[in-house]
Amino acid sequence: MSTVDQARELAAFLRTRRERLHPDTVELPSRRAHRRTPGLRREEVAELAGVSVDYVVRLEQGRGLRPSPEVLEALADALRLSEDERAYLFDLAQQRPTRQAAEEEAGPLAQLVLDLSPLPAMLVNHRFDILAWNPEMAALMLDFGAVPPEQRNTLWLCMLHPGLRHFYRDRERSLREGIADLRASWAAHPGDKAMAQLVEQLTTGSEEAAQLWAKRDVRVNARGEKRLRHATEGPLTVAYEVLMPLQAQGQRLVIYRAADPESQRVLDAVIRRAQ
């Protein structure tokens, strides 16, 4: 898989977002004529966005247009895009500021947080490569140090590592959210060849990943819950928070804590293993 072809991906993304909408959702009169395609028609999107039908057609055909920020805002409103989807649209159209090169190593402040945190924590980059971790996170998931560096990636491990096949009790949800987060980062770093290689590995190595990638869902996961199953201590639910160090472009510090009293008991037992 090559790096991001923005025009082609923009075309596909607009089509999928149009096809998921129904006229009733956007307060358009429902035509009685039979609809040959799902969702809104191109002329309906054009009407809502205040652009010509021909312009929408050319966008969906990937004919090299670069919409202005004003047109993108109108399209985002017409298609009822979420904030993450809106950012993704602007990235594809190259209308967001160019990002600085991402840091590939843990900075001293992030490493200090990992060393001091009594909770499972790890530092990942924009590709979700695991840059650093504390013993508590290794005790909860697996010994990252024993994993080849090229496989030390949260999404690769979640989808392709046999030892984590049953780690996520909500596997489908975890995969769906992970792929949606990856797609947002993929569009934000269109020239990243390592990112393109990761997408290729996931979508060719996992039918689940390939199907989810084709949906073009976009979501940046800042916090939430994960239902896990530790190999020896049993099931638990963790709440996670994602912090972004100001000194390191693109890095994320992920911290897990127990979501309920029973999970706290299990997590305490896991943490004791790390001591």
Short synopsis of the structure:
With 275 residues, the protein is α+β, with helices and mostly antiparallel strands. It is built from twelve helices and five strands.
Keywords:
five-stranded antiparallel beta sheet; 2 domains; Beta-Lactamase; 275 residues; Cro/C1-type_HTH; alpha+beta; 46% helix; 434 Repressor (Amino-terminal Domain); 12 helices
What does this structure look like?
Pfam families: HTH_31, MLTR_LBD. This is Helix-turn-helix transcriptional regulator. It comes from Nonomuraea antimicrobica. There is one protein chain. The mean pLDDT is 86. The protein has two domains: 6-92, Orthogonal Bundle (434 Repressor (Amino-terminal Domain)), CATH 1.10.260; 108-274, Beta-Lactamase (2-Layer Sandwich). It has 275 residues and is α+β, with helices and mostly antiparallel strands. Helix content is 46%, strand content 12%. The longest helix has 18 residues, at 171-188. The chain has twelve helices and five strands. The N and C termini lie far apart (43 Å). Strands 2-1-5-4-3 form a five-stranded antiparallel sheet. It is elongated, with a radius of gyration of 21 Å. A hairpin with a 5-residue loop joins strand 1 (121-124) and strand 2.
